[in-house]
Amino acid sequence: MTAAPPRSGPAVNALLTGLVAFQAISTDLYLASLPTMQRVFATDEARVQLTLSVFLLGSALMQLAYGPISDRFGRRPVLRFAIALYVAASLACALAPTIETLILFRLLQAIGSCAGVTLGRAVARDLYAPVVAARVLAYMASAMALAPIVGPMLGSWMTVAFGWQANFLFLAGFGAICLIGLYTLLDETNLKPDPTALDPKRLVANYASLLSDRVFVGYALAVTLAYCGIFSFISGSSFTLINVLGLPTEQFGFCFGAAAAGYSAGALMAGRLIQRFGIERMVIVGTSLSATFGLLGAALAWAGIANVFAVVLPFIVVMIGIGFTLPAGIAGAIGPYPRMAGAASAMVGFLQLGIAAAVGAGVGHILDDTTRPMMTAIAVVSVAGFATFWLLVLRMPRKSSPG
Q1: pTM recorded for the entire structure
Q2: Rounded Cα gap, residues 101 and 78, in angstroms
Q3: Which pLDDT score, from 0 to 100, does residue 399 have?
Q4: In the chain, N or C terminus with fewer CB closer than 10 Å?
Q5: What are the φ/ψ torsions at residue 189 (nearest 5 degrees)?
């Protein structure tokens, strides 16, 4: 008797959107509270920034494990364990008595959350063909943008009304809802588990084959450097807008939400256009937009034009470009590898989060009383994303590019 295929459709896609959103909501929700946490814990900006960078670093490292484990044992049991850990760690973050303790629990929170991102993408690849998966990922990204739109606004309000701890209690509740969805909605989608996926030699060979594929690396770096642009803003925006430009804390969420709306618009347009124009063109349009307006934002900062509009408006267009780049780039990277979709998604996530963690820590150390450090970092990574994609993918024979 043939087993029924795993369920797909709107309810499953909504759950996948929630899983992929773990990373965004876990960073964006509490951004407005970073200056408050600095005062409460009597520490410096760089130490508070570690709650972001450690989260990304932990996520990057664990993705390398979650991908192959899910290729071997299935997506569903790994997701259930990881999201349960996330809920417990989120509650512990709310109770942290010192900044060092909070950093430790953020690491545990990261270990749980990164399974949602890695395996949510892998599930999408399990269920759909590459170009269809890219469209689904684009629509998921558009819906997922509600997290950074609503998150900072909600986080700003909760910080003012209830204190910074309320943000982590909210995250625990969000994780609990997704955990219920994993038990009630998600079937196992890895229908052909690879019994050799955790063999050390095979594991090394799989990752080596990915990193030796110039097209995979080109798409992965386009995704990585696009996310570095987002994380440069995440790392520096609350300090730059609130401390440098004097924006009230309760208004910070609206500025961040406007940028996230740009991402949502870009992802929505990509979802509508990707089957007509292909994955490759979506990435080149996205990286071109981000590079152009990243340079414009940096030029305004170095010209001494320091106001909220000179920071936020160019970054909105950068985010439109990122909305094109991320879902198409992810699909372009993992699409050719259906037998090791978990490992391919994990490697993309490792590069994305590991490099972004380093960029975020760097931004935290170079922040000053101007807008120049953050805007320059956004420009540099955006231009690098365009350049690496052009060199590694566009210069390859056309047949080597998926989509």
Answers
A1: 0.71
A2: 26
A3: 45
A4: N
A5: -105, -15
